Amino acid sequence: MNKFHRVCKIARSGKPRLNSLGWVSANWSGYAVSGRTNAFHRISAKWTVPVVRPSSQSTYSSAWIGIDGFGNTDLIQVGTGHDYVNGRAQYYAWWEILPDVMTPIPNPVQPGDRMHAVISKVRGSTWLIYLRNSSQNWTFRTTKRYTGPQSSAEWIVEAPQVGSSISRMARISTVRFSCCRLNGRSPKLTSDELGVMLQGENVTSIPTAPNREGDAFQVRNAVGRSSGSSTLQKSS
């Protein structure tokens, strides 16, 4: 089935919120920063590829960085995928510019690999998409045309869309984002910029509070946990 990543689907009013902080989404969890048009021209981060745990049906997840998609319908992004399909775990790298579907990066990815991603405006509408796997010793880079508003920036764990529906979130180990940068500096993330994934009435993915510098956090899998029992913890 075709798989692609979509802009943040915010849960409607009436859904529970976590400690009245941040935002709630059906497909994203992590941190999103909003700004004016043309506010963001470079984003980067490092993370470790999580382990996918078995499930009784097909499940999907991705970790990525991107510009736009939070409050608008444009998005440029790069990341890793970690799915459980037909009784086996699958790991891969990809990039995407909406509305097109994702483009796989044909290089090996394994759980525990250390990734470093950068999306940067080169000039005009030309953008660099960069992904390095330091564990497997490969680097991918490409330049593409992108004309989005540059009004949001994200560090996200997602349940991607498969076919016509948002997928069931995979059971994965904790994703640790570090060295987060926005326009070349620490984004100084705050807890009111965090987002919790809520599928049905259950929290399925939840970020910790950011570290003291505001440039690192963890996203923890919470599949099957009641939305009322989740608590925020500070990232180490």
What is this entry, summarized?
With 236 residues, this protein is mostly beta strands. Helix content is 0%, strand content 50%.
Give a count of the beta strands, DSSP E runs of length 2 or more: 20
Q: Percent helix among the residues? A: under 10%
Level-1 CATH class name of the domain at 3-9 and 33-188: Mainly Beta
The rounded Rg comes to 16 Å
Helix/strand/pairing category: mainly beta
Mean pLDDT: 90
CATH topology of the domain at 3-9 and 33-188: Jelly Rolls
Order of helices and strands: EEEEEEEEEEEEEEEEEEEE
Low-confidence runs: 12-19, 224-232
Q: In the CATH hierarchy, what is the architecture of the domain at 3-9 and 33-188 at level 2? A: Sandwich
Q: Any overview of this molecule?
A:
The protein is mainly β. It is built from no helices and 20 strands. It is globular, with a radius of gyration of 16 Å.
Identify the notable features of this structure and list them briefly.
236 residues; mainly beta; Jelly Rolls
Question: Helices and strands in order, then pairings?
Answer:
Elements: E1 3-4, E2 23-25, E3 28-34, E4 42-48, E5 52-53, E6 62-67, E7 76-85, E8 88-97, E9 103-105, E10 114-123, E11 126-133, E12 138-145, E13 152-158, E14 161-162, E15 165-166, E16 171-172, E17 175-182, E18 194-199, E19 202-207, E20 217-226
Parallel strand pairs: 2-18
Antiparallel strand pairs: 1-14, 3-13, 3-18, 4-10, 4-17, 5-16, 6-7, 6-13, 7-8, 8-9, 10-11, 11-12, 14-15, 17-20, 18-19, 19-20
